[in-house]
Amino acid sequence: MIPWEVLAESTAPDGQAMTLSRRGHEYLIRVGGWDLMSSRDDVSARALASIGCAALGPRHGRPLRVLVGGLGMGYSVAAALEAVPADAEVEVAELVPAVIEWNRGPLASLAGAPLADPRARVLEGDVAEIIAAAEPGRWDAILLDVDNGPDPLAHDQNSALYGVGGLRAAHRALRPGGVHAVWSYSREGSFSRALERAGFEAKVHPVANHGRDRGRTHAIWVGRRRDGAGKQAKRGPVKGRERGPGRR
Ligand SMILES: C[S@@+](CC[C@H](N)C(=O)[O-])C[C@H]1O[C@@H](n2cnc3c(N)ncnc32)[C@H](O)[C@@H]1O
């Protein structure tokens, strides 16, 4: 068995220790002693962007703009860049400065150096704050993979992104017909209902995992913004957020 080699260490903004390690061809980012992202989990990370972008409706004469939440190892950004036209913009929000630095260094070649693409722009910060501060209708698609999905574990504050308040903020930040796609470790739970309540038409796409959790099915939730959904969105709390063991 090849031993893990620690390539770099850092601290997340919430104080948790982070490491970047390599074992042969496999790379791993750990936070607070838990696995955050492995290069063996590339399939569902790419599927988030390919499925999310495929759900986009017709363009209305202006370039597409996509937000990816969570850079990780760059697979979702790379797949988004593959899915959108030459005049599109792909913004990527990343909380941890070291992850951005690692993607420009030792991780760059894993997903084909997506940050070197002139259509890509990194926004350093919390994606929840970036979405909340955005002008209404900024993006055609938001592709979210910051944690384990609707049952976030790595950063506790991420749970707000998956609650109805966070989903309504995403709704506001999307153009009519826009897509909010969310990666999830598990396809169990009531997240479709939360999306519906926030004004989206919800669909869940199972994605077979070929990486460390071989045999396990991850999920990509796709919420398509209903036109005039601000009026249609049902108000009230959403109960029964999904529970599951999480990515780690
Ligand atoms: C599981 S990884 C994403 C994997 C990515 N889809 C890929 O293709 O490699 C989660 C990423 O989200 C970042 N993150 C976690 N919480 C965040 C937040 N609130 N805002 C922005 N980025 C966040 C983590 O630092 C990490 O880089």
From TrEMBL:
The protein's name in its UniProt record: Spermidine synthase
SUPFAM superfamilies referenced in this protein's UniProt entry, alphabetically: S-adenosyl-L-methionine-dependent methyltransferases
GO BP of this protein: polyamine biosynthetic process
Region spans: Disordered: 209-248
Regions of compositional bias (Basic and acidic residues) in chain numbering: 239-248
Gene3D superfamilies to which the protein is assigned, alphabetical: Vaccinia Virus protein VP39
Statement: the UniProt record of this protein carries the keyword Repressor: no
Keywords: Polyamine biosynthesis
InterPro entries found in the cross-reference section: SAM-dependent_MTases_sf
